[in-house]
Design brief:
Blueprint: H1 2-16, H2 18-24, H3 39-60, H4 66-83, H5 85-88, H6 92-124, H7 144-153, E1 163-172, E2 182-192, E3 195-206, E4 209-218, E5 221-228, E6 232-238, H8 241-254, E7 267-273, E8 276-283, E9 286-294, E10 300-308, E11 317-330, E12 333-345, E13 348-362
Antiparallel strand pairs: 1-2, 1-13, 2-3, 3-4, 4-5, 5-6, 7-8, 8-9, 9-10, 10-11, 11-12, 12-13
Helix pairs in contact: 1-3, 2-3, 3-4, 4-6
Length: 368
């Protein structure tokens, strides 16, 4: 509905510009335009009309560069408004609205392009790496509960995963006291050699107000970026000890979606008891660990770690728990399809994220 209203605004605003052309070439008497308009000025009015009509078509067609044409159209239109201020001053209002939406669209384009470039970086570093099948011999040295889990997932004998693309439907609570869940869509890419991920989420807080976020683990360094309307930074933390460790631990907890990564040379395992094991990971100077819990059938149940809650200087270590709610076989591998993520705070448990994997692809040439 909002798209239709905005498109209609652009179209009507554009068609009004035709009046200047009609007056200049004396095709009709336009009594609302009291100032004289030369033929050259009339052609500018016509050009503005055509540009705004083009914008409305590009916008409805979903062309991501519609804002570029909009910037040119608004500039020409506003110059005409200023020259013919007495007759056209109210044209400033739709010009301002179109310009504001264009600036937001430009910010979205820049944000998406930046994420796309990061995805390209991590995927390009995995080209030509080994994806030979995971053999029984590769997992016999692992602790018994980990070996049992890998066999239960069905990854033994299958091609080892090098790259992952997955889509998530998520529900989020941005604050512990938030009552309602906010729906969002997330897209995530992983590589296992070298270990890296890019996670992007788009969430609408209220109509016309959007938040986009990107978490990154690349080159052993972490990064968290959250922007309001793709424009205003809310969180921008990167490459410090706390966020580097936190994003590494997140990677370590999420390899359950591509279990063959458990044999990565960067990960070591230590048996705790018959149903749990500690996973530790060191990569490019960053180290982190967490505890995997399994059931007697080899199903992964949970991952918990002492993780920094954020990357700020005053960020504190808190228990961070990923809990499985439902398993599914996807692409022939049994993985957790529904999970909940919880921070254990002094005030109590804060389950801030519920997610469902709606699609997952392995070792494909992905469209970003």
């Amino acid at each position: 509905m909002i798209r239709i209203i905005f498109t209609t605004l652009i179209g009507i605003h554009g068609l009004i510009h035709i009046l200047g052309f009609v007056k200049a070439f004396k095709y009709a008497a336009i009594k609302e335009l009291t100032l004289p308009i030369s033929r050259s000025q009339g052609l500018l009015w016509l050009l503005s009309c055509l540009l705004f009509i083009s914008i409305s078509i590009l916008f409805m067609a979903g062309n991501e560069l519609w804002w570029l044409t909009a910037g040119i159209a608004v500039l020409i239109s506003q110059v005409l408004v200023i020259v013919f201020w007495r007759d056209a001053k109210f044209g400033t209002i739709p010009n301002a609205v179109i310009l504001l939406v264009s600036v937001v669209a430009l910010a979205e384009f820049g944000f998406e392009r930046g994420v796309s470039n990061e995805v390209e970086q991590i995927l390009s570093r995995s080209v030509g790496k080994d994806t030979s099948p995971l053999s029984t011999e590769m997992i016999t040295s692992l602790p018994e509960p980990v070996e049992h889990w890998l066999k239960n997932t069905g990854v033994v004998g299958k091609e080892r995963v090098l790259t992952v693309r997955l889509e998530q439907h998520v529900q989020m609570k941005m604050q512990p006291d938030q009552q309602d869940w906010t729906e969002a869509f997330a897209l995530q890419y992983f590589t296992t050699d070298p270990p890296a991920f890019i996670w992007k989420v788009d969430m609408q807080l209220i109509p016309l107000v959007n938040i986009s976020g990107r978490d990154r683990f690349m080159g052993g360094k972490g990064g968290m970026l959250i922007k309001l309307l793709w424009l205003v930074p809310v969180v921008n933390s990167s490459d410090n000890e706390k966020i580097n460790k936190g994003t590494l631990q997140r990677y370590l907890g999420e390899i359950v979606w591509f279990p063959s990564a458990a044999v990565s040379p960067f990960i070591t395992w230590e048996k705790i008891d018959a149903l749990s094991a500690k996973a530790s990971m060191t990569y490019m100077g960053t180290t982190g660990s967490g505890i995997y819990q399994f059931d007697e059938h080899g199903n992964f149940l949970s991952f918990r770690a002492e993780r920094y809650m954020g990357g700020e200087d005053d960020a504190q270590l808190r228990e961070w728990v990923i809990a499985v709610k439902e398993n599914k076989i996807m692409n022939g591998i049994k993985i957790p399809a529904k999970m909940e993520v919880t921070w254990k705070l002094d005030s109590g448990a804060w389950t801030w994220l519920k997610l469902e994997i709606t699609r997952i692809e392995y070792n494909e040439t992905f469209e970003k």
